[in-house]
Specification:
Strand content: 5-15%
Structural class: alpha/beta
Number of helices: 21
Number of domains: 3
Largest sheet: 7 strands, mixed
Number of strands: 11
Radius of gyration: 28 Å
CATH topology of the largest domain: Rossmann fold
CATH class of the largest domain: Alpha Beta
CATH superfamily of the largest domain: Vaccinia Virus protein VP39
CATH architecture of the largest domain: 3-Layer(aba) Sandwich
Strand order of the largest sheet: 7-6-5-8-9-11-10
Distance between the termini: 55 Å
C-alpha cells in the first residue's frame, strides 16, 4: 500500500470509528440516567474534551520530540489502547449511582470505557497531517481534515439508518472493536515505516522549502479566532441538539442531525472553500439570528416541531459554516503551527460544549442556551468581520446588542407570572400562575421549557379535579376507577406511578389507598408538594421514591400494584429503557394478580401503541388503546393511553369495553430489548 493511500485510509477510518463510538457509548449510558436528553449533551462535552486531549497529544509529539521518538511513542500508545480494549470488553461499565452524580458518572464511565481508544483516534488526523507534511517537505495537507470529516459524516449517517435498526448493542460494540483493531494495525504500520525510512536527517527534522520557511507566523488575532470561532460553532451544536432531544426524543437520530450539519460545514470549509461566500453567508446569518432570536422571546410560542427543526438546523448550518470557513481562512501556512491550529480548534469546541452542557445548567435557573449561542455567534462574527470596515462593524455590533436585549426579554418572559424557576441536569422547571377567565380562577402550571407537566385549578370546585392528560375519561382515569371492580371493590388500591410531575394522579386517591411515585429529578418533589396540593391533600398514603424507576423497582421487593402508570416522558421525548422486554418483566413482577399497566403514549411524532402491543403479547398480556378528547373549560388535554393486563374480566367492564380500541399492527416492528431498540420504524414525521 502506498504511503499516501495508507495515510488516507488511517485518517478516514479513525474519523469513522470516532463518530461511530459516540452514539454507541451514549446509548449504553442513557438507561442509567433515566433516558435524559442531557446525557447526550454531557457526552458531547466529554467527546470534545477527549478530542482536545488527542490534539494536545499530537501537538506535544510533533513539537517536542524527534521524528523517531514520535513514532516509537505512538506505537506504544496504540498497543496500550488495544490492551485496554480487551479489558473494557471483559469488564462492563459500572453505572450504579449514576443518577445522583450524573456529570461525574458520565465522564467516569466514558473515560473507563473508551477513553484511551478515543484519544488515539482523535490524535490521528492532526498527527498524520504533520507527519505527511514532514515526509513530503510540503505544506500541511488540510484536505486530510476534510477526509476526516467525511468519515465522521458517513458514520453518523450509517448509525441510525443501518446499524442501530439491524444490530443489537452488543453486536455494535463487537463490530466497532474489530474496526478499531484494523485501524490500530494501520497506525502501527505507519509508525513503523516512519522509523525505518530515512526521509531526512534527524538533525534537521523540519526542513522546509525556503518559500514556506519564510512565511510569517500566525498573529495573536488569528490564534484567538482559531479558538473563539469554533467555540461559537460548538455552542450552536450543543444548544440546537438540546432543543431537539428535549422536545422529541433522546435518540441517536436526533443527536446526529445537528452533528451532521456541524461536520458538513467543516467539510465545506476545509475541502470546498470556494463555495463559501462571506457576502451571502453573513447576511443569511444575520436574518436567521434576528428571526429566531425574536421567536425565543415568546416563551409560550411553539412552532410545529418539523418547522422548528428545519429553522434551527438551517440557522446552525449557516452559523457553523461561517465560523469554520473563517477559521480556515485564517489557517496557518507553517506546518509547525498545524497542530497548534487544531489544538485551538478543539479547545474552542470543548469550551463551547462545556458552556452549554455543564455550565448553563449550573449557573442559570432557566434555559437560555440557544440565545447564548446566538449572542456568541454575533460576537465572534463582529471580531472576524472587523477588518472589513465600519459598515460591517456597525451591523454586527448592533447584532450583539440586540442579542443582549433578547436575552433580557427572555428573562422577563420566563419570570413573568412565575412562582419558581429551577434547573439541573434533568430539566429546566418553572411554575407559572395565571388566572383563567371568565371566573378568574387561579391556575398553576408546571413547565419544562414549553412542555406542560401538570396543572391545577385552585377554585374550590376544581381543586381536586385531575387535569391535563389525567382526566376521569382518560385511559389512566378509567383504569383507576375500574381496576378493582371485578376482584374486590372494597379493596384499598395500591398504585405505582413512574413520573411525578405535579402529582396529579394523587387526586384519585381514596382513604386506605397507597400511591407510590418514582421520580428521577430531585427538584420535582419539592415543587409538587409545596406549590401544588394534589399530594398533600390526597386522602391516600403517598410516597415519592427518588432515582431512576427501573433501578428502584429492581432493588425493591414485589409491590403488588393494582395499577402501575408509566408516565416518565418529557413532552414527546421518551426514555426507551422503560419500554423494553426486560422492563415489562420487571413491571409484571411488581403487579398484583390481574393488575394493570397504563402507558402514557400521547406523542406527536412517535406511534408507540403498536410497539407496546408487541411488548404486551410477548409477556402474555393484552393491550388496548384509549383516546380521550380535550376539554378547555376543565383544563383537560387530548390524551392517549395504552392499558395492558392479563385480567380478561377487566376488558369486559362496560366503561373499559366502550372506550378501549384494539391496536393496529405495524409492519417490520421488532421487540425492543435492553440490547436493541430503534424509533425509526415508528416515526410519523407528519405529526398527529
Amino acid at each position: 500500500m502506498s504511503s499516501r493511500l495508507l495515510y488516507n485510509t488511517a485518517v478516514f477510518s479513525s474519523a469513522f470509528l470516532l463518530f461511530l463510538i459516540e452514539p454507541i457509548a451514549a446509548k449504553q449510558i442513557l438507561p442509567a440516567l433515566g433516558g435524559s436528553s442531557a446525557v447526550w449533551i454531557t457526552c458531547l462535552v466529554f467527546f470534545q474534551l477527549m478530542l482536545l486531549l488527542g490534539y494536545l497529544y499530537a501537538h506535544w509529539l510533533t513539537t517536542r520530540l524527534t521524528p523517531r521518538a514520535q513514532e516509537a511513542i505512538h506505537q506504544i500508545v496504540v498497543y496500550a489502547a488495544i490492551g485496554a480494549l480487551g479489558l473494557q470488553n471483559a469488564f462492563p461499565l459500572d453505572l450504579s449511582g449514576a443518577a445522583n452524580h450524573p456529570f461525574t458518572a458520565i465522564f467516569s464511565a466514558l473515560g473507563a470505557g473508551i477513553g484511551l481508544q478515543f484519544l488515539v483516534l482523535a490524535a490521528t488526523s492532526p498527527l498524520l497531517q504533520a507527519w505527511l507534511a514532514r515526509r513530503e517537505q510540503s505544506r500541511v495537507k488540510f484536505s486530510l481534515f476534510a477526509l476526516s470529516n467525511a468519515g465522521s459524516l458517513l458514520a453518523l449517517g450509517m448509525y441510525p439508518t443501518l446499524i442501530e435498526p439491524n444490530l443489537p448493542l452488543r453486536a455494535q460494540k463487537l463490530v466497532w472493536s474489530i474496526g478499531f483493531l484494523f485501524f490500530a494495525i494501520l497506525s502501527i504500520i505507519i509508525a513503523f515505516r516512519g522509523r525505518t525510512t530515512a526521509i531526512q536527517p534527524e538533525s534537521t527534522p523540519n526542513l522546509l522549502p525556503a518559500t514556506i520557511a519564510d512565511t510569517p507566523p500566525a498573529t495573536l488575532r488569528q490564534k484567538l479566532l482559531w479558538f473563539f470561532l469554533p467555540l461559537a460553532a460548538a455552542m450552536q451544536l450543543s444548544a440546537v441538539t438540546a432543543y431537539l432531544t428535549q422536545n422529541i426524543a433522546a435518540i441517536p437520530l436526533l443527536w446526529i442531525l445537528p452533528l451532521a450539519v456541524y461536520l458538513l460545514t467543516f467539510i465545506l470549509a476545509f475541502h470546498a472553500p470556494r463555495l463559501y461566500s462571506r457576502f451571502l453567508v453573513v447576511r443569511f446569518l444575520a436574518v436567521l439570528l434576528a428571526g429566531l432570536g425574536y421567536m425565543l422571546t415568546k416563551s409560550d410560542m411553539s412552532l410545529p416541531i418539523l418547522v422548528a427543526i428545519g429553522f434551527f438546523l438551517v440557522e446552525s448550518f449557516f452559523a457553523a459554516w461561517f465560523c469554520h470557513a473563517e477559521t480556515y481562512r485564517l489557517r496557518p501556512a507553517r506546518p509547525s503551527e498545524a497542530t497548534l491550529f487544531y489544538l485551538l480548534i478543539a479547545a474552542g469546541g470543548v469550551a463551547g460544549s462545556f458552556l452549554i452542557g455543564i455550565a448553563c445548567p449550573l449557573l442559570f435557573r432557566a434555559n437560555y442556551d440557544i440565545a447564548l449561542a446566538f449572542l456568541a455567534t454575533a460576537a465572534v462574527a463582529l471580531a472576524a468581520i472587523w477588518p472589513e470596515g465600519w459598515p460591517q462593524r456597525l451591523l454586527w455590533a448592533t447584532g450583539v446588542v440586540l442579542m443582549g436585549v433578547i436575552l433580557s426579554m427572555m428573562h422577563t418572559a420566563y419570570t413573568r407570572q412565575s412562582l419558581v424557576e429551577v434547573r439541573n441536569f434533568y430539566a429546566s422547571l418553572r411554575v407559572r400562575e395565571s388566572l383563567f377567565p371568565p371566573e378568574a380562577r387561579k391556575v398553576r402550571t408546571l413547565l419544562n421549557g414549553i412542555v406542560t407537566h401538570g396543572t391545577q385549578w385552585f377554585a374550590a370546585d376544581y381543586r381536586r379535579n385531575p387535569t391535563t392528560y389525567y382526566a376521569t375519561d382518560s385511559g389512566v382515569g378509567l383504569a383507576l376507577e375500574n381496576c378493582c371492580l371485578n376482584s374486590n371493590p372494597a379493596h384499598a388500591r395500591n398504585i405505582g406511578v413512574i413520573g411525578l410531575g405535579a402529582g396529579t394522579l394523587a387526586a384519585y386517591g381514596q382513604p386506605g389507598d397507597r400511591i407510590r411515585f418514582y421520580e428521577i429529578n430531585p427538584q420535582v418533589e419539592p415543587i409538587a408538594r409545596n406549590l401544588f396540593s394534589y399530594i398533600r391533600e390526597s386522602p391516600a398514603q403517598t410516597q415519592v421514591i427518588l432515582g431512576d424507576a427501573r433501578i428502584s423497582l429492581t432493588q425493591e421487593s414485589p409491590q403488588s400494584f393494582d395499577l402501575l402508570a408509566i408516565d416518565a416522558f418529557t413532552g414527546d421525548a421518551i426514555p426507551l429503557h422503560l419500554l423494553t422486554k426486560e422492563a415489562m418483566a420487571l413491571y409484571r413482577r411488581h403487579l398484583a394478580p390481574g393488575g394493570i399497566l397504563a402507558f402514557h403514549v400521547s406523542n406527536q411524532y412517535l406511534d408507540l401503541p403498536p410497539e407496546i402491543d408487541l411488548l404486551a403479547r410477548s409477556a402474555g398480556m393484552k393491550a388496548g388503546v384509549i383516546h380521550s378528547p380535550s376539554n378547555d373549560t376543565r383544563g383537560e388535554f387530548s390524551a392517549t393511553w395504552v392499558l395492558v393486563t392479563d385480567n380478561t374480566a377487566f376488558w369486559q367492564i362496560p366503561a373499559i369495553a366502550n372506550a378501549a380500541r384494539p391496536i393496529p399492527t405495524r409492519a417490520h416492528l421488532r421487540l425492543w430489548t435492553d440490547d436493541y431498540s430503534t424509533l425509526l420504524p415508528i416515526l410519523t414525521w407528519r405529526g398527529k
